[in-house]
Amino acid sequence: MVGIRRGIAASFAAVALIAAACGGGDDSQDGAAATPSAPTSATEPTAAPVAPPSDVAPELVIGRVLPETGPLSASIGGALIAGVELAVDDINAQGGNVKLIAGDSATDPDVAPETVNRLLGEGANAIIGAAASGVSQSIIQTLYDTQIPQCGASNTSPSFSTQANAEYYFRTVTVAVGESQVMANSMASRGATNVAIANRADDYGSSLARLLADDLAELGVVSQTVTFDPNAPSFDATVVQIVDMGVDAVALIAFEEGIAITRRLIEVGVPGWAIHLSAGQFDFGMPGRVNPADPSVVDGVRVQSPSGGGDFNQRIFERTGGNVNFGAQAYDCAVILALAALTAGGVDGPRIIAAVPEITRSGQKCRSYGECAELVVQGVDIDYDGVSGPLELDDVGDTTVGRYVLGEVRSGVLEVIETVDVTLDP
Prior knowledge:
The chain has helices spanning 73-93, 111-121, 133-145, 176-189, 203-218, 236-244, 258-267, 286-290, 310-320, 327-344, 349-355, 369-377; strands spanning 7-14, 16-19, 34-37, 60-66, 98-104, 126-129, 150-152, 169-171, 194-200, 222-228, 249-253, 275-277, 302-306, 364-366, 382-384, 401-410, 413-425. It is of the alpha/beta class. The protein is globular.
């Protein structure tokens, strides 16, 4: 399976919207809030055989390396952090034994390694993070060398599926082909025939741009690509390039810089319905940040993000004031690590990572830490279905089933209009 691009099947379901007043979240939530309600829905590590489960859960120390500051703190940092914290609360309330220590990735490949070293020095047995694929790449070698399991809740780059130093890495979000297919189908359904793909110059941006170009081509849509420096002082040249292409739609793969680019696209006359944003820009405060005086100028803009089911998203919503992006995936990272430690009978890294794929597939279905842990203690092979979907991790630690929410700006408010469950085939 490694190195082979997967196909995808998607099922769409209508989503009820839950509006709520902003409060308790970060500043990026000003202007609008909505949360979806959805239907429920490398080489193998050299490790000793998984030990029989223990009657007492071992203490597992999880270090989280997530964006408290930096470019992703507004769009996805809050929900990622809330997802991990909520999971630890639930695990411990259901008989688990997890300690959480916090660290800021700052979405910076120079900051994250320092944070990881600190967390390891404080006794972390596992790491959740970083948020950005490129930042996870800055810490993955250290975690490989120290045999510390790492879970990525929002890393979609295909690179992790094939690189040798990803032996202790797994993720609860589908690889970029899932997001690519959601974007391509949405754009094609709106009549796009000639798309400009504008992507930031990093691993996330370049890999998603390549996949999106392929998926658009399969749908009969022509595309052209322009790559930009996310740290550029101005994006006028990028916008000029897009306009000069003569396209009828724009796919913008960006993080925080996407606000400035979207604003400029609107200013030069690109209609909102012709713009589709990537997951790093899913922010309920986005319309007001593009134009505080008139958020409706971005009406029609669409954006998708990995997410969870409706009940879980409401729990995250209450902690963040509206941000649900990747929260379910972060929650499932923590639960899987705790169940893997219980299955392994300790916090030895090789034993934990060896147990990870097996507890998400082919066993008896269970849907919470408490329910699954009881089965593990009884010696039952489990199949954890998480709040982000059925998961079904493969042998390289990639989840093969995921859930997305698709949003559209209407009357100046970003509303969730659909959920999309994706299944990636070998």
